[in-house]
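Example 684.
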Amino acid sequence: MTDNAIDVHGLVKRYGRRTVVDHVDMTLAPGRICGFLGPNGSGKTTTLRLICGLLTPDEGTGTVLGQDLITGHDIIKRQTGYMTQKFGLYEDLSIRENLEFVGRIYGLDRLHTRVDAALDRLGLATRQTQLAGALSGGWKQRLSLAACVLHEPRLLLLDEPTAGVDPKARRAFWDEIHALAATGITVLVSTHYMDEAERCHEIAYIAYGKVMARGTSDEVIATANLAAWRATGPGADRLAPMLTNAPGVTAAAAFGATLHVCGPDPAKVEAAIAALHPNPEIVWERAEPTLEDVFIHLMSLSTDNAGDG
Amino acid sequence: MEFLSRLTAIIRKEALQLGRDRLTFAMMFVMPIMQLLMFGYAINNDPKALPTAVISADDSRLTRGIVAALATSGYFALTHAASSEAEANALLQRGEVQFVITLPSDFTRRLVRGETAQIAIEADATDPTTTAGALGAVTEAINEALARDLTGPLSTHNARPGPVDIVIHRRYNPENITRINIVPGLLGVILTVTTVIMTALAVTRERERGTMENLLAMPIRPLEIMIGKISPYILVGAVQVVVVLVTAKLLFNVPILGSLWLLALATLLFITGNLAIGFTFSTIAQNQLQAMQMSFFYMMPSILLSGFAFPFLGMPAWAQFIGNLLPTTHFLRVVRGLMLKGAGFSDIATELVSLAALLLAVSAIALSRYKATLD
Ligand SMILES: Nc1ncnc2c1ncn2[C@@H]1O[C@H](COP(=O)(O)OP(=O)(O)O)[C@@H](O)[C@H]1O
Ligand SMILES: [Mg+2]
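Predicted structure in complex with magnesium ion:
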């Protein structure tokens, strides 16, 4: 028995002969926001489905909100809000009807008041009779989130909630997530955005069904132990193509006029830089590796040994 | 309490969505009327070996010869020997026999005396196409029998025209109108076509649009989803029944002789069973197209083997076996009995039980197949 909101170990899910989730461990303390990152098809959605009881794991044990993952489905579902990757509400029902439907499924008391409050919080009170299908992507996501938290869950599982949403709406969405976490709700949220990863208390990086990195973003960066350089000067950004495929270089990417290069072995990266046509106008200096560097590095590691999968 | 809250949530939601779905609405009203109009004509065919009861009050060489001749004609299968008119009537009412042949006690006596003897044939004419061929063959069969058996001194009677008077009595549909029989059949077929597809689509649509995942992540049970999904469509089916019956009354003047309550009960069992079948299809189909294909596939036997397209008793045993597994078959019998024959509860009780049993069986299959997870 632990106090962790999520405490699962060795989760395995197979589809046919493919192992889509491969011995995943996940622990998350109450009130924490954990960003769940990984390339497409790496098993994020499947892991979230395992945790909320939509899928039965082939292997693995653990507890969610103190309930057994396998036998406690009913109780877990009651206290969890799961926001699907695809819009999961009814486009042919109005905004209000959708919220009322969800409220009734959870058997909520004071339904009218709760829905009114949710609509006010959303700022959709005046549009409550509009069909949900008429909402823009950003509004749909906020409506989904409102529906997810209507029953005051203790755990939120959000599957790429901000995909395809404009920056302003994303900002608003994340402000809401932080506000929810401040009330003690635990959040596991999958995303592709680096800036969002940095807004999480901690992150988990998954590739080919395996968790490759776990911790705060500083911890993840430190653990990866990458060395990075920045080049400035005229034409520095144009050096990227010459470095990307050099041995020992994980990534070389232009950011405006500057170039950012990194790799696991400093000597090899330096050698790659030295092998370039010397240009005194370009200044090289050591830089901090970023989270993105780490993910690209981890992805290249996992593709290297994905051949057997 | 929670069960009810969740159930009403689903029912309300389905009803709202249904109300906004114009196509379904059109289907509800237009399709029954269209089909009713299109099926103005019946398919002609010539079923043989129809079950027949014989009341023979006069056992002689002559009567035995006539009965044998009727049997050899191929149209009559002498399945029952009734001792009284009441017994024979009950058989006819329950649909166990198609014909009752009565030979009065003075049959032979009158023939021998050179008087005209009478033979009475009562036919269940609910479906005129079933009886037409058989009734047409009666005169010839009897004349052949007489030619063979009226020998010696009796042979002179043969020369005389009409030694036997054949009295044919068409029951239930005396005017012999095919349309009258088509309407109850059509009611069953229309309901089969529309209701199965409705639930089959309603559930796969949710899966296709991704709302099913959201629904399953909430604390709702398969039984609640099933009942909640089916209930609103029972109402749709009920509206269709009213549309068909009113149209049939206005256009074809088809009577409803039996109890409306029994009709309502049978319809409820039938519609619910069909909706459960549709729900079962939705647990197998991957998408709406497949659900549609499965529903159409199901419609074929329901039309062909239920007694709608061909007289049930004229079908081979294997086809009758399959037919008996289809709710449509039992519903057709109930509706024909109620509308045209004025059948009472005891007459249709077995069919009602069959409908209920099929409903329970299908629901059990649907529930066992419906998963509360995405596995
Ligand atoms: N129902 C399923 N049947 C077969 N394969 C599946 C199914 N669901 C997911 N997968 C496969 O599992 C892998 C992981 O999928 P998913 O968890 O959706 O990844 P992510 O959310 O990280 O993009 C993908 O390769 C996907 O094709
Ligand atoms: Mg996904």
